[in-house]
Amino acid sequence: MTTHVTNFSASTARYGGLPPVRRTGNLTGAVIAVALHIIAVVALLQYEPVRSALTNAVPLMVSLITPPVEKPTVLPKPLPVKPKMEKIKPVEPPPVLTAAAEAPTPYVAPPPPPVPVPVEIVAPPAPPAPPAPPVRVIPPNFNADYLKNPPPVYPTIAKRQGQQGRVMLRVLVNTAGAADRVELRNSSGHGLLDSAALEAVKQWRFVPARQGDQPIAAWVLVPITFTLES
Question: 0.90 exceeded by the pTM?
Answer without folding.
Answer: no
